[in-house]
Amino acid sequence: MTPRVALVHERFTDVAGSEHVVEQMALAWPEARIHVPFARPSGIPRGLGSRVVTGPLQRAYQMIGCRSHAPLLPLVPSMLRHARIDPAEADVVVISHHAFALAAAAVEVPSVAYVHSPARWAWDAGFRRGEAGSVLGRSALSVLAARARANERRWAPVPEVVVANSAAVRDRIRAWWGRDAEVVHPPVDTGFFTPGSGAKEDYFVSVGRLVPYKRVDLAVAAAVEAGVRLLVVGEGRDMDRCRARSGPGVEFLGRLPREEMREVIRGARALLMPGEEDFGIVPVEAIAAGTPVLALGRGGALDTVVPGVSGELVNGRDDDEVVHALARAMRSWDDASYSASGLARFAARFSEASFRSGISAVVDSVL
């Protein structure tokens, strides 16, 4: 018998990787309602609007014009602890957790926590320093980090099962929460991201938001050092730092429509991932599209970038060493080492169907 499931997500303010995870959960359990403290229409994945249930914070979010959600985050745990999830509605609650959603484990039914990562900015002071530029910003983030750590410590023991989205996140859960976790990789749209029919062109590519932790500035600096062409797809608050390290051959394309982005990825010799990701959906999209990945050998890349199979890994003790390692790899990159069909076969293990099967099996095991 199909279990009755209630889904909980931290917020629907923008559609990004975690929202696509919830979208696939909603497909796995088509009768499930999705509980969020607050949402805006543009932040809800297509087709899910009628299933979203917001809480008391929705009115506050609307009063501030659905702009910054940061002031509301400290209130999320309290709202989720009192979420109106009727035990008659669900046999199990599946929680999509970033920093505060874990408090939904307080409901009176068994729960499963799908963890995109423990709040990395809360536990890792070095990561936090890169995320806030001003003294006031750092102070505010430190206060919020303390709240996030307290929330995770309190509720981490409660879910029947904790699921990590990568081996790296599983290791963080063990170190920071003292719990073991299963790994179910996030879903990748391998039906859309497929190899193209055209030949590779003479450029590398970086795709994603320009935010500090993704370290796109290192990819830019490495391309300049290597004397290769780099296309940067994306926009964000780290644009100035990236442009400051730019030079001949580096082109900033901004945000592209999905189809155009896929074509740029298909034509690239390799996609660069110079930052440490929790998992990294974009690199797997590139692999599915027949483009190998050149990545920093940390975090989620260790699950998806297999040297000689789906790409190459580099390391360094500091930023300069990482830049030099990326530049060396780009100068010596061997396109003949990879076939589009082989890359697509490798990426198939991360398909949306594989995710739905994996997370459904975890929930069934709880019941």
Tell me what the structure shows.
The chain is 39% helix and 14% strand. By secondary structure, the chain is α/β, with parallel strands linked by helices. The strands form three sheets. The chain has a seven-stranded parallel β-sheet with strand order 3-2-1-4-5-6-7. The chain has a three-stranded parallel β-sheet with strand order 8-9-10, with helices on both faces. β9, α9 (239-244) and β10 (250-254) form a beta-alpha-beta unit.
Quick structural overview:
The protein is of the alpha/beta class and 367 residues long.
Global outline: globular
What's the SSE pattern? EHEEHHEEHHHEHEEHEHEHEHEHEHHH
**Could you say what the CATH topology of the largest domain is called?**
Rossmann fold
How far from one another are the termini? 11 Å
| Overall structural domain count | 2
Largest beta-sheet details: 7 strands, parallel
**Got a strand count?**
13
**Cross-sheet strand order for the largest sheet:** 3-2-1-4-5-6-7
Can you give the helix content as a percent range?
25-40%
